[in-house]
Amino acid sequence: MTSTAQTIKFNVGGTHYEVSKVLLDRFRGSMLQREASRVWNEGADEVFIEGNGHRFQYVLDFMRYRKVTLPSSERNDVFVTEMEYYGLQRFLVANARAAYETIKFNVDGTFREVPISLLERRQDTMYYRKAVEALRAGRNEVIAEGNDWRYIGNKIFNHH
Fold this sequence. Notes:
This is POZ domain-containing protein. Residues 8-92 form the Potassium channel tetramerisation-type BTB domain. The protein is an alpha/beta fold. The protein has helices spanning 21-25, 31-42, 56-65, 76-85, 89-94, 96-99, 116-120, 126-136, 149-157, and strands at 7-12, 15-20, 46-49, 102-107, 110-115, 141-143. It has two domains: 1-88, Potassium Channel Kv1.1, Chain A, CATH 3.30.710; 100-160, no CATH class. 45% of the residues lie in helices and 19% in strands. Strand 4 and strand 5 form a beta hairpin. The radius of gyration is 19 Å and the shape is elongated.
C-alpha cells in the first residue's frame, strides 16, 4: 500500500504509522516534515526512521494535541530526547506548559501532583517559576527541599 497525497507512511524502527500531511505541515522545519517532503518529491513509498517505534506514538500525540500524558513506565527526559531527535524540541519548549497536565512536587521525598492550570493562576509564586523552569528543561518534577507541603499547598491553592 502506498502513501497517498494526503498521508505519508513512517516505518519507525519496524513499527508502521500513517500520518497526515496537514499534521506534518504544522511542524515545518522538523525532521519529520523534511523527510516526508523528500519522500513526496521522490515518489517513494515510506519514510524509514531509525527510532523507537513504541515511543513514536507519544511524539504523534504531542503533535496532534500539543500535550501528552506519558504512562508511568515512560520517563519525561526520554520523551524530550525523542522530541529532540525528531527536530520538535522548539515546539515542546514553546508549549512546555501544555505538554503536561500536571507537575510533580517532591517535598522532602513526598510526591504531590499539581495541575499546571492551577499553577498558572499563581504566576506570582516561586513555585510557578520553578515549574516552568523544570518543564522547559524537559522535567515535570520540582524538588522543594526543606519546605513542608502545607506551606507550598497554601501558596499554590489559596489566592491570598
